[in-house]
Design a protein that fits this description.
Shape of chain A: globular
Protein name (chain A): Xylose transport system permease protein XylH
Number of strands of chain B: 22
Helix content of chain A: over 70%
CATH superfamily of the largest domain in chain B: P-loop containing nucleotide triphosphate hydrolases
CATH class of the largest domain in chain B: Alpha Beta
CATH topology of the largest domain in chain B: Rossmann fold
Strand content of chain A: under 5%
Largest interface: A-B, 27 and 35 residues
Keywords (chain B): ATP-binding, Cell inner membrane, Cell membrane, Membrane, Nucleotide-binding, Repeat, Sugar transport, Translocase, Transport
Largest sheet of chain B: 6 strands, mixed
Radius of gyration of chain B: 25 Å
Helix content of chain B: 25-40%
Strand order of the largest sheet of chain B: 6-7-8-3-9-10
Protein name (chain B): D-xylose ABC transporter ATP-binding protein
Number of domains of chain B: 3
GO molecular function, one term (chain B): ATP binding
Pfam family, one (chain B): ABC_tran
Structural class of chain A: mainly alpha
Oligomer: heterodimer
Number of strands of chain A: 2
Chain lengths: ~375, ~525
């Protein structure tokens, strides 16, 4: 294969380049930490770390694809996590009712942001900046600037619990079976309607790769304690968000609005409705992330989620989301989140000072987007 | 040694093999004002970009002589340095900066170290503005405090600050009032007396007659004629501008025209930035079933605004009373319009039409995605089948249906956008400049489709700046001028000259007395409500 072919392959499957970069990062840390990085225990831990940024990235990738941005998510995550702590610790609510209320609150906060962007037509950058300050302020107000602990054990379980090994294996097997069934069904439908379809070997290859990833992933986690619950939640969100992005009218409209808002409007798409949904989902994701964050710390902290928006946005851009909107994938953003978490995790294990961690993460973000610009330069 | 300040000889320029200019000669003496006339798309803008250095020397053929010596400008800066300054239709000023800063924008007078020399600029600005009889202007005020007329004069002052010897005006009065126009023309006279040459591009032939010494007409990228201004009258210029046979590009298909389908009354569009100004001023018309209604007019006459308002897509404030099949119709958004059975293929394909990164297929199905969905999930197979059908019917040339639409040629993008709207099964299809930037083959396909649709009973509103297209396709022609309806002709024996006369708004030829293309009065139509 020539260099040009490689280049074309990466432009087509950006995700390959990203996975190679991730592999390089992992191998580096594995060597640098004397073989401690790629271990069952650490990978379990790493994925758990990824889950919070990953949840935000799920919501953020839609926001960015739709051509907007939301800078308030770190503060909103902190606020919603704080509300869970206040409800369960100070007000003695049951964990489940607190979780339910906070999910609704998150949705409402997101819709509120969306309302200001679409109806009052304040640019989302400003709305996010305002929310970043205001939500943090509310959080400090309700916690009186103090940590609220300890939250109930069943809440902590949400972050610290595991799906035990044998149900995990069962789940992975089931997921693989569903993938196979969906592929077969699709091939049959397309054949019945004589629509051209991908070569059979390509589908087999895709299934084989998916199966291998599922098997390695599950067996690795099973060697520790099973699939951590936040990771399970993130995987569920990955499936749902990918489904929305690739299979639904809503998903297509999100891409269209980000790709050309005027063309979408003239095609009869309710642009402000689409944006409201996107911001609403973002708020909901902040609620999930906030709840898990509070559960993981076993406490509500007035500084929780600081810089969370930056990690989420960086994850999206590393994962190949277009800055101008209209292009991006959920799984790309999640791999981006995994890259960010790997850097945090690896450098912590190497005892690198915090300031170096910030410098490296910042540099990786800029380099990732630069590579993206390079590979896309020929398109314009 | 010639006595011309500026000469162009045999200028040729083509884009991707399509010639835009094929041999243009222009000459201007010091202190002379040359009028340049031609239809939209005749090549005036391209020509101006060649001579102002926007297209660098080497990207076109021919010679430009400046004071008898070859000029090889590689950029706008080079040609401005020589003394050629273009004053664009859209003013190139920065609203938030002061008048003074605008006058010297990119040409600032500085002290050592790059510091702005405000004193020197103030002195110079005073002298410049005095020359333009603008002594009372406070140059420290932001530019946006002044109206369009003043801003135009500031552009001239800015050009003079660069020691311009040749000023090019591109439709300078399109946004000026009659009084402001008088002031501008007076100033051009003064500049001429000082030995500054001008090229004056305008559709307003009365202005051309007033201020120009010589008139050159170009058509289809060719130089047609140059005459002393006093040898020409308006009719003669119009004849030179249009004078060509209508090609057999229009395969007219006889079709039945039914009852009134849409009636629009008192359509008014207010300018987005300046709501006091009306872009469309009280226009009423009706459209019959299966009728192809052409809307002609010059750029800026308000045609796009009119059809956007009807489609619920006008960005500013607009009013319109509509009746569809006799029923009152309220359209507040493009969604309402599409639901009511209207479709719009917009003028600006790139900005308002394509979603560039999306595939051709997904672009085609964008307006009708819900038709292929159950419970919010898109049936991809159904969607692809529809898209493939449309690609076949419209003869969209694409390597595969999923190719990003940005990679297609303009004509094929346009066909895909047609397909997008046809899938909504419109009763009325509005086409805004559907063949702009489209090659001849795709043009023929588009015309064929227009006639096919009309024969199926779809009503078509065709906005076009190309008169042969308007005459070759329309059953009836509306003409707009400066926001108003100035002509409503049945297309039988109608000539380009009549349309042009109505579009320019000259009263001499647009009257109902003009027999061949019968002027229709709305009142004489048997309205069906």
């Amino acid at each position: 294969m020539h260099a040009q072919d490689f280049r074309r392959l990466f432009v087509r499957y950006k995700i390959l380049a990203l996975l190679l970069a991730l592999a390089a990062i992992w191998i580096f840390f594995h060597v640098a930490t004397g073989g401690a990085f790629i271990s069952a225990r650490n990978l379990s831990n790493l994925l758990r770390q990824t889950s919070i940024t990953g949840m935000l990235a799920c919501g953020m990738v839609f926001v960015i694809i739709a051509g907007e941005i939301d800078l308030s998510v770190g503060s909103l995550l902190g606020l919603l996590g704080g509300v869970v702590a206040v409800l369960t610790v100070n007000l003695q609510w049951s964990s489940w009712s607190a979780v339910l209320l906070v999910l609704l609150l998150g949705l409402a906060a997101g819709l509120f942001n969306g309302f200001i962007v679409t109806r009052l037509r304040v640019p989302s950058f400003i709305v996010g900046l305002g929310g970043m300050l205001a939500f943090r302020g509310v959080l400090q107000g309700i916690t009186h600037g103090a940590t609220i602990a300890p939250v109930p054990a069943d809440l902590v379980y949400l972050a610290e619990g595991y799906l035990p090994p044998w149900p995990s294996s069962l789940l992975a097997t089931g997921a693989f079976a569903v993938l196979v069934a969906l592929t077969l069904l699709r091939r049959r439908r397309r054949k019945a309607q004589s629509i051209p379809q991908a070569a059979a070997w390509l589908d087999v290859l895709k299934l084989a790769v998916a199966g291998a990833v599922l098997a390695i992933f599950t067996s690795m986690l099973n060697r520790y304690s099973g699939i951590p619950l936040p990771v399970l939640l993130l995987l569920a969100l990955l499936v749902i968000f990918s489904y929305v992005a690739s299979q639904t009218v809503l998903g297509r409209h999100i891409y269209a609005v980000g790709g050309n808002v005027e063309a979408s409007r003239l095609s009869g798409i309710r642009v402000s409705g689409v944006k409201m949904v996107v911001f609403g989902l973002m708020g909901l994701m902040c609620a999930f992330a906030g709840i898990i964050n509070t559960a993981r710390l076993a406490a509500g902290s007035p500084s929780a989620g600081t810089n969370g928006e930056l990690d989420a946005i960086a994850a999206c851009f590393i994962g190949g989301t277009s800055m101008r909107g209209g292009a991006g994938t959920v799984h790309g953003a999640l791999i981006g989140a995994l890259v960010m978490a790997s850097l945090d995790n690896g450098m912590s294990m190497m005892d690198v000072d915090n300031y170096w961690q910030l410098i490296v993460k910042g540099a990786i973000l800029v380099i990732a987007v630069w590579v993206d610009v390079l590979s896309g330069a020929k398109r314009d | 040694m010639s006595d011309y300040l500026f000469e162009m000889r045999g200028i040729k320029k083509s884009f991707n093999g399509v010639p835009a200019l094929s041999g243009i000669d222009l000459r201007v003496r010091p202190g002379e004002c040359l009028g340049l006339c031609g239809e939209n798309g005749a090549g005036k803008s391209t020509l101006m970009k060649v001579l102002s250095g926007v297209y660098p020397h080497g990207s076109w053929e021919g010679d430009i002589l400046w004071q008898g010596r070859p000029l090889q400008a590689r950029s706008v800066r080079d040609s401005e340095h020589a003394g050629i300054v273009i004053i664009h239709q859209e003013l190139m000023l920065v609203p938030g900066l002061s008048v003074l800063e605008n006058l010297f924008l990119g040409n600032e007078l500085t002290r050592p170290g790059g510091r702005m020399d405000y004193e020197a600029m103030q002195v110079r600005a005073k002298a410049l503005l005095q020359e333009l009889q603008l002594e009372d202007v406070d140059v420290s005020l932001p530019l946006m405090h002044f109206g369009g007329g003043h801003q135009q004069l500031f552009e001239i002052a800015k050009a003079l600050a660069k020691h311009a010897r040749l000023l090019i005006f591109d439709e300078p009065t399109s946004s000026l009032t009659a009084k402001e126009t008088d002031v501008l023309l007076g100033i051009i006279e003064r500049l001429k007396r000082r030995g500054i040459a001008c090229i004056y591009i305008s559709h307003k032939l009365d202005e051309v007659a007033r201020v120009c010494d010589t008139v050159s007409v170009i058509r289809d990228g060719r130089h047609v004629a140059t005459h002393a201004a006093h040898e020409l009258d308006e009719n003669r210029i119009i004849a030179l501008m249009v004078g060509r046979e209508i090609e057999t590009l229009y395969p007219r298909v006889p079709h039945d025209i039914g009852d009134v389908l849409l009636r629009a009354e008192h359509v008014v569009c207010h300018d987005v930035a300046d709501p006091a100004r009306k872009r469309v001023d009280d226009v009423s018309f009706s459209l019959r079933q299966g009728e192809i209604l052409g809307i002609a007019g010059l750029v800026g006459a308000g045609r796009t605004e009119l059809v956007s308002a009807i489609f619920g897509a006008y960005p500013g404030h607009s009013e319109a009373q509509l009746w569809l099949e006799g029923e009152p119709l309220r359209i507040r958004s493009p969604q309402d319009a599409i639901r009511a059975g209207l479709g719009l293929v917009p003028e600006d394909r790139k900005r308002h039409g394509i979603v560039p990164l999306m595939g051709v297929d997904q672009n085609i199905t964008l307006a009708t995605l819900r038709h292929y969905a159950r419970a919010g999930r898109v049936d991809r197979e159904h969607e692809e089948r529809e898209a493939e059908n449309q690609i076949g019917r419209m003869r969209v040339k694409t390597a595969n249906a999923a190719l990003p639409i940005a990679l297609l040629s303009g004509g094929n993008q346009q066909k895909a956008l047609f397909a997008r709207m046809l899938l909504t099964r419109p009763k009325i299809l509005i086409l805004d400049e559907p063949t702009r930037g489209v090659d001849v083959g795709a043009k023929a396909d588009i015309y064929r489709l227009i006639f096919e649709l009309a024969a199926e009973g779809v009503s078509i509103i065709l906005v076009s700046s190309e008169l042969p297209e308007i005459l070759g396709v329309s059953d009836r022609v509306l003409v707009m001028s400066e926001g108003r309806l100035t002509g409503n002709f049945v297309n039988a024996g109608l000539t380009q000259e009549q349309i042009m006369a109505a579009a320019i708004g000259s009263a001499s030829t647009a009257g109902p007395a003009n027999v061949p293309g019968r002027q229709v009065h709305e009142g004489e139509q048997p309205l069906v409500f």
